[in-house]
What does this fold into?
Amino acid sequence: MVFLNDIQRHITGQIRIGEPLAKYTSFGVGGPADYYIVPASTTDLVQAIAYLRNSALPFFLLTRGSNLLVSDEGYRGAALMLEPGLAHVRYTSARDSSKGGLVRAEAGVRLATFVEYCVERSLRGAEVLAGTRGTIGGWVAKNFGRNGSSPIESIIEVDLLRDGEVTKWREGNANLAESTINPQNDIVLAAAFRFTTGVKEEILRTRREWLVKRNAIEPVNLANAGSIFKDHSGWKAADLIGRAGLKGRCHGRARISETNANFIVADVGATASDVLALIELMQRKVRRELNVRLELKVKLVGFDRQRLQKVA
It folds into this structure.
């Protein structure tokens, strides 16, 4: 059994009991967590995780609550919020400032904040993330090792918590191109990027282009958690769901977006059960009509094992 006084001896940040998680998720749904913990620093987070693991108390990281669906019954464990304790950004310019420099961001830094920070310093590369949800930690964990033009190619260092140990991967010290991160086990603490200096007006124009592009294909200003399913073997999940005739389908106060069928929108009064019912419908109908198994991208938290097995 875990007692509040015992937790407080190991963690210097905030601790709340029975904190509702709906206000911390982009869906705006979800019940309370037994413990809601806001570590004060990276060291505090590492100590908190060590304590929780030694106490066999389940936990998960809240990274702006995007890509996440929390059960209406809540979570029997601890939710760790990385803001504001791990939300620091630092810029170190090169000796020749015209060549750019290094930007180091902790895991809890919002991607929108990161983009703005780089743009203001005329650093080229991060602007392609304009309009992307989440935080640096979650984004690096999901995308690290993928090919393609993105700031991932600019990463020169990653601080990682793996098996209870803090590991630092550096360019030249470890082959970052061949390194992999397991989002189910590894926790990104921070990442450092090398960016070059560009023309600010051009960077701003590129940022606007990416914002327009994402806003055109996503339900902007509506409560959602981003893409529900991963794309499948050359097919966009949104196209598969659309072909199955599910755009606009509702359950309770949740509905499949008419803008992008791989998004579920939670209107006021929606529940996590409403959202999960639509997830099950999308999987079932696409598999029956198109013989394709949709794989979840959004993380489900607090649901019983039997319900999870249905959508795994």
In short: The longest helix spans residues 272-290. The chain has a mean pLDDT of 91.
